Fold:
Amino acid sequence: MTTRRYAVVGTGSRSAMYLSSLTDTYAHVGEIVAVCEPNPARAGYHAEQFGFDVPRYEPADLEAMIAEQRIDRVVVTSPDHSHADLVARAMRAGADVVVEKPLTTTADGVRTIAGAMRETGRDLVMTFNYRYSPRNSELRRVIADGEIGRVLSVHFEWALDTVHGADYFRRWHREKENSGGLLVHKSSHHFDLVNWWIDSNPTRVYATGGLAFYGPDGAGAAGAGERPAKGRDAAAGDPWAIKMAADPKLKALYLDAEEHDGYVRDQDVFASGITIEDNLGLTVDYASGAFLTYSLNAHAPWEGYRVTVNGTEGRAELEVVERGWVDNPNVVDPSATPEGAAGDEVRPTGERLVVQRHWEPAREVAIPMGAGSHGGGDAILLRDIFEPGTQDDPLGRASGVLDGVRAVSVGIAGNVSLAEGRAVTVDELELGVNLADQDLDPTAGRN
Ligand SMILES: NC(=O)c1ccc[n+]([C@@H]2O[C@H](COP(=O)([O-])OP(=O)(O)OC[C@H]3O[C@@H](n4cnc5c(N)ncnc54)[C@H](O)[C@@H]3O)[C@@H](O)[C@H]2O)c1
Structure:
């Protein structure tokens, strides 16, 4: 079995999934030989955690790293706005790429990546981990098996709670030029799910919404009391603060690393400088003739989602409660997966997939769970990333560049729509990629 030489680019919190895999379950197919990370403290933390000792390069030296360390594949886990440049440069320097969602934040970024792929023929694997969650996989199966007929419309509501949702307003995500806003940063997961569930391409987007709750003028600011400059200094019991000093991982990765680059992880969610939205609503038309209505709320008292899929022969409904209520007034690690709180009787944590065909009673569909984290989904995801093409997956969960482009095209068009107050077609973004085309993806069967 060939062992690939890997470099991880951007060693913040998300990189841990890749670093842990490459130093454990996937060490037989991949070896970490370098990291590219501007902050020595963050790079050092992970080297110690996962027990590797490899050279660290600055982002400006990406090409030198790839040449000197003979890198086969880079994993890009840097902030969203940096993806396009790093992906294109890595390919031109001779490496294949695994990139976290979102693929990029702008139409220009799509053109940059498409240009590099055409020029180099290099491979790109996207990480759309939500596909692998058994409930989301099962909804795909229900639709693909024709249980509800041809899909005519989808209604999708996503609620981010005051722990997790608030976290996007604390750090780099809070500026649209860094993250593309939640429509790109967060919703690209959701748009990818819809594109994949209904197997069609988005064509036109109308978006509305704004910053209504967070920020100095947001509705939440009035009741939030006197605000400190950084969440860490907030009075004990402030539900809007994270306590980085109390959490060894947050402390090492961000608080102790701040002196090197001034990256403040715990800005106040009611401070000025936020340029993203916290309440969003969209209508999306699809090539198949179906349409999507979608909403995202980032200050809900519970976290989860509801999806309704209307087909010609019936309807599928998926309801998920990831956390029924927020009971921790003094948040420690907001990025931790919601796990439901005790005393959660009214809105119990859980999931329910119901299918109802016309003229038939509703039936609950069992969601098959595998072994390991995220109901077995993570094991399948990691194999698709580190041993691509080695498992048969009738659901087609492995994703490539076109899936990445399809997903961000909705958010990018949505951002234009928000700015201009009109419906925006995907065509007018001039992405330089035909969404129905396979020409960007050198790997047959993965699109
Ligand atoms: N799939 C998921 O569910 C999921 C979850 C979390 C994050 N993500 C994605 O992972 C990426 C990283 O998110 P995070 O939460 O780890 O952020 P983070 O801020 O914790 O880490 C980003 C790291 O990149 C470094 N960096 C900044 N600019 C760089 C550059 N030009 N080149 C190389 N490194 C650079 C930073 O110093 C930092 O260490 C984002 O794209 C995010 O959308 C995906």
About this structure: Residues 33 and 69 are 7 Å apart (CA to CA). Residues 129-369+398-428+443-447 form a domain with the Dihydrodipicolinate Reductase; domain 2 fold (CATH 3.30.360.10). The two ends are 25 Å apart (CA to CA). The mean pLDDT is 93.
